[in-house]
């Protein structure tokens, strides 16, 4: 019972798909393909024809797995997907019924007058889904040659036209007509006329078209037959003229396709418009009519053609020899493949694979050659066409039979490669399974073996002749393990107990530090830490406050109860803090050193400017009020160490850089701010403009402003210095996330290896290490990274600078250091350590210690 239920379910699924397929057929291209399929399977039901067209529209001959093997000595290729069709599976039951007299049709009685009964066998119709395969999905003994096309020359054309005349239900003759008319069916005179002087193909197509009209749309004949039969049926209702044309043209196209006659494929542009608005039964009825009429006409033409050939004594066997079913022998194909290997057209892996499957390759080539001949009226295959077909099939089979993934050991290196949609993804590892290099070879049209050959051309240290096959999965597992270990080491470095430098601008809460926040377990540096008291105060000022958790997640506070019930620390985003009134008041109250003033300018999230003027003293007298040309003539240049920043402020409104420079020149010469302590702007001063996070420096020259390409030296970027502590998992492994941009990674010598599944991250490597990089462009972060160098996450604030100890080591090693960095480091070292708020939290009661990680009262969403 269970099996029967399952069969019914499968049958319902496939019949539902037929209905959907019929609705989708009436798009011009799909409809033409359906007609071609229907012509090849004209004896099949409409349902099965639609199913074959949906699943494998290029199918030519289908049969079941066992039938191919037992009747045709051919085997289904490994991995081929079957075509599902519906097959009748009737079963017989025995039934007791009355015995009827064959003459009188009355029940027969026995001697006692009782009705005699007899046991009879009744056939009950049933259907099930079965699997079949197309000939192109099989290999083995060649099939017998198919009947050749019949319109290759005039002799066949004349025979074919005679067969059409005999198949027509009404007389058929030729006459002169206007060029815009190919023929017509005269319903009153009951004959077909075809225009003289047309090409053979056009003549055949028009003739079949009119025969279809005479078979399906002969309403006059049907009316007369009803009159003669004295039937009182309803009068004949003609179908629409457009439907008549669709049916006739479809039958003509299908029959011509069956005989290999190429007709105009642009005649179905109106199919979609015709089918619009028609329901499924109406569409199905038209397809049934087209299918049955085409099938009957093909059978009539075949029968009459055979009769005519026999009547005229024509022997077609000699012609059939022109179309050998097996065009190239396996030995011939083997020789071709071997020559390709000798000529270097095939690499060793491809050559070995094709030699092992030379029979399959020969079948594939011969099928294509025969199809070409069939499409070209039985012509011989030209040499260049044959060569193209051979090369195409060699390339296709090389890809089809090749493994999807491979791995090798080559000396101290490991190499893996796998097939992807756009080509081949490969990786190169060292002897300890650390990723050295990799990427995507973006040519999906070549085999995996040829891709390996091209990739290794650029890797002279790797000799493929020494390659040893290894297990792909085992290699990738070991590489992943090695990467996991390296990530753990880097994460330990990031989260080490070394003191971390603080932000140099005022934080929102002096009672809790960045180090406290990191020790707590929250590492996102865009979030500034708060105690509960300060969080409550800022929340009441309508500022956004977050509840921070030890697993590096956060939730927005929507109510004071959320803050009261949270047992951990709190935070607010850096941008919110800098834009707040409290921050402005703290800034106004503080006095900043020269170095702090410059750092505030560089860290400012808003558009800003700064003015640099030469330091005082005899040492700088030669530079004062000198134009660039004058400095150059004396062998002098503009040096950062010769200048102090004397003023900085934000811009308001929008203007071009040129307008900004002229505005500042006028302002600082005529009406400079009261707190400006420098001299009026003049030659040799430098104006720094910050716009969208990018800083440019402009020298006040004798008659104009000159942009300086080099003023503040940028520290080379190292991805390890900007690890976020997060890890990005991809099918190729797990990678540490760095907050550097793609462009900065490229400048540091890293190239794109692959992307994450969702495209949000690039995986970039330099031959030794690889990192994950966000797929985004952030100018603010770019500006910050020009000076950051330590292990904190990028936060839009230049806070990661070398320590005094590190600078001393650089000097001892003979290197040069920046006075700016030294001054900042000394100031940082002098800062007193604050009391850790984490320790205060640990001293709270057990109830308060437990983190209440529940959704806020207003169902706030968790944010990352």
Automatic annotation (TrEMBL):
Region ranges (Disordered): 842-864
Top-level lineage group: Bacteria
One term of GO molecular function: single-stranded DNA binding
UniProt-listed Pfam families: ArdcN, DUF4316, LPD16, YodL
Domain Large polyvalent protein-associated: 403-482
Domain YodL-like: 609-710
Ranges for domain N-terminal: 9-133
Location of the DUF4316 domain: 776-822
Protein name: DUF4316 domain-containing protein
Source species taxonomy: Bacteria, Bacillati, Bacillota, Tissierellia, Tissierellales
């Amino acid at each position: 019972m269970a099996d029967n239920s399952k069969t019914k379910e499968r049958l319902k699924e496939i019949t539902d798909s037929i209905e959907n397929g019929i609705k989708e057929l009436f798009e011009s291209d799909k409809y033409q393909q359906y007609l071609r399929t229907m012509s090849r399977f004209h004896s099949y039901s409409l349902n099965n024809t639609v199913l074959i067209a949906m699943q494998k529209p290029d199918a030519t001959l289908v049969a079941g797995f066992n039938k191919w093997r037992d009747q045709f000595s051919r085997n289904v290729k490994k991995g081929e997907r079957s075509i599902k069709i519906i097959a009748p599976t009737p079963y017989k039951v025995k039934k007791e019924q009355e015995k009827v007299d064959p003459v009188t049709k009355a029940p027969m009685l026995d001697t006692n007058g009782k009705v005699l009964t007899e046991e009879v066998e009744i056939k009950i119709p049933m259907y099930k889904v079965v699997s079949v395969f197309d000939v192109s999905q099989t290999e083995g003994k060649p099939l017998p040659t198919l009947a050749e096309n019949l319109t290759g020359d005039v002799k066949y054309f004349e025979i074919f036209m005679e067969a059409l005349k005999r198949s027509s239900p009404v007389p058929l003759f030729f006459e002169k007509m206007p060029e815009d008319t190919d023929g017509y069916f005269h319903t009153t005179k009951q004959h077909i006329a075809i225009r003289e002087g047309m090409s053979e193909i056009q003549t055949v197509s028009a003739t079949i078209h009119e025969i279809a009209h005479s078979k399906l749309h002969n309403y006059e004949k049907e009316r007369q037959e009803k009159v003669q039969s004295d039937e009182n049926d309803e009068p004949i209702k003609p179908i629409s003229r457009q439907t008549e044309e669709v049916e006739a043209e479809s039958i003509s196209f299908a029959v011509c396709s069956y005989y290999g006659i190429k007709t105009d494929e642009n005649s179905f542009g109106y199919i979609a418009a015709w089918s619009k608005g028609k329901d499924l039964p109406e569409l199905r009825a038209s397809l049934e009519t087209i299918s049955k009429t085409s099938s009957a006409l093909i059978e009539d033409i075949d029968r009459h053609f055979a009769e005519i050939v026999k009547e005229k004594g024509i022997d077609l066997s000699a012609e059939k020899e022109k179309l050998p079913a097996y065009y190239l022998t396996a030995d011939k194909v083997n020789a071709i493949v071997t020559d390709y290997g000798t000529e270097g057209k095939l690499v060793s892996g491809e050559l070995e694979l094709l030699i092992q499957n030379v029979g399959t390759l020969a079948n594939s080539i011969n099928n294509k050659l025969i199809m070409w001949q069939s499409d070209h009226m039985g012509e011989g295959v030209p040499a260049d066409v044959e060569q193209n077909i051979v090369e195409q099939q060699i390339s296709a089979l090389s890809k089809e039979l090749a493994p999807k993934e491979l791995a090798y050991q080559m000396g101290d290196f490991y190499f893996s490669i796998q097939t992807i949609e756009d080509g081949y993804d490969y990786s190169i590892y060292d002897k300890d399974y650390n990723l050295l290099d990799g990427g995507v070879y973006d040519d999906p049209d070549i085999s995996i073996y040829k891709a390996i050959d091209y990739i290794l051309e650029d890797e002279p240290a790797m000799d493929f002749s020494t390659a040893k096959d290894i297990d792909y999965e085992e290699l990738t597992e070991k590489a992943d393990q090695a990467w996991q270990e390296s990530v753990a080491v880097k994460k330990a470095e990031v989260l080490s107990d070394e003191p971390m430098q603080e932000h140099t601008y005022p934080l929102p809460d002096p009672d809790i530090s960045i180090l406290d926040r990191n020790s707590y377990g929250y590492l996102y540096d865009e979030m500034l830490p708060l105690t509960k008291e300060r969080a409550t105060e800022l929340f009441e000022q309508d500022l956004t406050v977050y509840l921070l958790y030890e697993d590096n997640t956060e939730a927005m506070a929507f109510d004071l109860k959320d803050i009261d019930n949270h047992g951990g620390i709190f935070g607010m985003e850096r941008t919110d803090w800098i834009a707040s009134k409290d921050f402005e008041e703290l800034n106004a109250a503080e006095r900043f050193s020269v170095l702090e003033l410059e750092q505030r300018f560089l860290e400012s999230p808003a558009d800003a400017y700064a003015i640099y003027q030469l330091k005082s003293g005899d040492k700088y007298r030669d530079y004062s009020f000198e134009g660039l040309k004058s400095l150059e003539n004396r062998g002098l240049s503009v040096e950062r160490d010769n200048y102090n920043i004397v003023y900085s402020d934000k811009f308001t409104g929008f203007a071009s850089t040129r307008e900004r420079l002229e505005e500042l020149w006028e302002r600082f010469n005529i009406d400079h701010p009261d707190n400006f302590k420098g001299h009026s702007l003049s030659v040799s001063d430098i104006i720094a403009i910050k716009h969208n996070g990018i800083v440019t420096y402009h020298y006040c020259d004798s008659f104009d402003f000159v942009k300086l390409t080099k003023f503040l030296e940028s520290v080379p970027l190292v991805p390890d210095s900007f690890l976020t502590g997060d890890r990005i998992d991809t099918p190729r492994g797990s990678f540490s996330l760095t907050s550097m941009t793609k462009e900065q990674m490229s400048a540091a010598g890293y190239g794109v290896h692959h992307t994450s599944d969702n495209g949000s991250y690039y995986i970039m490597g330099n031959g030794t290490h690889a990192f994950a990089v966000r797929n985004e462009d952030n100018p603010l972060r770019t500006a910050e990274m020009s000076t950051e160098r330590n292990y904190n996450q990028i936060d839009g604030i230049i806070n990661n600078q070398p320590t005094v100890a590190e600078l001393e080591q650089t000097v001892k090693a003979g290197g040069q250091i920046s006075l700016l960095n030294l001054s900042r480091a000394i100031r940082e070292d002098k800062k007193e350590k604050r009391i850790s708020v984490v320790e205060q939290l640990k001293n709270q009661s057990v109830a308060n210690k437990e983190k209440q990680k529940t959704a806020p009262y207003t169902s706030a969403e968790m944010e990352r």
